[in-house]
Design brief:
binds cytidine-5'-monophosphate, alpha/beta, about 400 residues, 2 domains, eight-stranded mixed β-sheet
């Protein structure tokens, strides 16, 4: 990356009230090194963590802290400041700030600036991992994304309160890199799926044994939901067939909830015709031959379940290629990942298969993180490990490439 990738850019850095505010100091230095002019606005909360004077020393401009500072307003009014900015970067973006932005609040300087600007807005969230994972925060992020807000991070790792999970502010260097015009060229693929219909399956299926028990699996649905969101942001019409999961529906996506493999199959085919099918669901391979009408009572020492194969939805979809331009499968494996994935690519007649190793710490089914490799007939791509949201963007980018190949 060139040192001056933000040369001439006027960046308004809005600092939210979280412990990661101290990293925003480094961010100012990095932004200026990259050639940007920087002005800083802080929320009241941010000022409990870092002083305005620290930012002033690093940015070379007075730090703005309130709407009600007549001296500051006299030299540059807040509307003028909102207009001055070529772009607004909010780092750290707290859960509260994201909620306010999503709902258009303007009850302090930072939120007012964000509402008054027409400049692109980038948020770098940082918070406790449970706050990040909360459906309210995820819905707010989806709203902001749908509105064109760029989201950087958060990263997974140790958090200030001694816990670990997704919630760390991305490193200042990574944030500055993501702001660069080269990174922005990635935005050019944003509408690359416009006019196309994408059907995504996600989550586990539950196969009922009796009225109270079922056979299920540990799929969280996070990857499929992230893929659906990513495809939607690139302009596709997206139908998301979701097994039983606790996840917010990505903005603009049509969601159909199902429970069993048979229901998933029916919903998938009902959603066709489509241009792209992405089978990210962990579909049960077996289902009880006949679920018991009443609760199965314990009697003998052992119990044998009579299971039959479920329909292989992905194979069936790939076999009826009518109108489909690309069929993508997933392979969660515990060993010999490449071998098994390539085997499925051929056996199921897929255009692309995305493999990841499960049963390892920090990745796979229940994690927000993943490490994936995609295979197609004469190629493969290893994705940089990271958040499922970022990997979903990378996968959609590859799908766009394969469509045009
Ligand atoms: O063979 P395996 O189950 O590992 O293949 C995984 C891929 O096949 C996933 O994309 C999954 O969504 C799909 N699949 C399916 N129907 C099944 C089993 C798997 O669509 N019954």
């Amino acid at each position: 990356m060139a040192d001056d990738n933000l040369k001439g850019q006027r960046v308004l850095l809005c600092v939210g009230g979280g412990i990661a505010a101290y990293k925003a100091l480094e961010l100012v230095r990095r932004l200026r090194e990259a050639g940007a002019q920087v002005q800083v606005a802080m929320t009241a909360g941010a000022q409990h963590f870092v002083t305005p004077l620290s930012f002033q020393a690093l940015s070379g401009s007075p730090t703005r802290t309130t709407l009600w500072d007549s001296a500051a307003e006299a030299s540059m009014g807040h509307i003028e400041l909102a207009r001055w900015a070529d772009r607004i970067l909010i780092a750290p973006a707290t859960a509260d700030l994201l909620a306010k932005l999503a709902h258009g609040f303007a009850d302090d300087l930072v939120t007012t600036l964000c509402l008054a600007t027409t400049a692109p807005i980038t948020v770098a969230p940082a918070m406790n991992h449970r706050m990040w994972g909360h459906p309210a925060t995820q819905a707010n992020i989806a709203t902001l994304r749908a509105r064109g807000v760029q989201v950087i991070g958060p990263e997974d790792g140790p958090l200030a309160e001694g816990e670990s999970g997704p919630g760390r502010l991305s490193e200042p260097g990574a944030i500055v890199a993501a702001l660069s015009p080269q990174a922005e060229s990635a935005v050019a693929i944003d509408q690359a799926l416009k006019g196309l219909k994408v059907v995504v399956s996600a989550g586990p299926t539950y196969e009922d044994l009796d009225p109270v028990r079922y056979l299920g699996n540990r799929s969280s649905g996070k990857m499929g939901f992230a893929v659906a969101d990513s495809a939607r942001r690139r302009g596709a019409e997206v139908v998301l067939i979701a097994g039983p999961v606790h996840l917010a529906t990505p903005a603009g996506v049509k969601r159909v909830d199902v429970r069993s493999a048979a229901q998933m199959r029916e919903a998938v085919f009902a959603a066709f015709p489509a241009d792209i099918y992405i089978g990210a669901a962990a579909v049960a391979d077996y289902t009880p031959r006949a679920p018991a009408a009443n609760k199965i009572k314990k009697s003998n020492e052992s119990l044998a379940l009579d299971l039959v194969r479920t329909p292989d939805i992905l194979s069936e979809v790939a076999a009826q290629t009518q109108g489909l331009k690309l069929v993508v499968g997933f392979a969660a494996e515990t060993e010999n990942v490449a071998g098994y994935a390539r085997g499925k690519l051929v056996a199921k007649h897929l255009d692309l298969i995305v493999a990841n190793r499960v049963g390892v710490a920090d990745g796979g089914f229940e994690s927000d993180q993943n490490a994936m490799t995609a295979y197609w007939q004469d190629g493969e791509r290893v994705f940089n490990p990271g958040a499922k949201t970022r990997l979903a963007d990378d996968l959609i980018e590859l799908i766009v490439e394969r469509l045009n190949a």
